[in-house]
Amino acid sequence: LYTGNSGSVELLKFLDIANAITSTAAGTTSDTVSTRDSIRDLN
């Protein structure tokens, strides 16, 4: 039971990390697009 349980915990930790990385990447992309649009508006 403990072994199976710890496997699930490790999987959840991994998914949390993957989700954080994905969210950060998506946020960076969004910021880049916003900046590009702002620069375009200035011109």
Radius of gyration (CA) equals: 19 Å
The helix tally amounts to 1
The best one-word shape is rod-shaped
Distance between the termini: 63 Å
| Number of distinct beta strands | 0
Structural class: mainly alpha
Helix share, percent: over 70%
Mean pLDDT: 76
Question: Low-confidence parts lasting 5 or more residues at pLDDT below 50?
Answer: none
User: What portion of residues belong to β-strands?
Assistant: under 5%
- Largest sheet features: none
Order of helices and strands: H
Write the layout of secondary structure elements.
Layout: H1 2-42
Index terms:
single chain; 43 residues; mainly alpha; 1 helix; 0% strand; rod-shaped
Brief summary of the model shown:
With 43 residues, the chain is mostly helical.
Explain what you see.
This protein has 43 residues and is mainly α. It has a domain of 30 residues. Helix content is 95%, strand content 0%. It is built from one helix and no strands. It starts with a helix and ends with a helix. The model has no long low-confidence stretch (mean pLDDT 76).
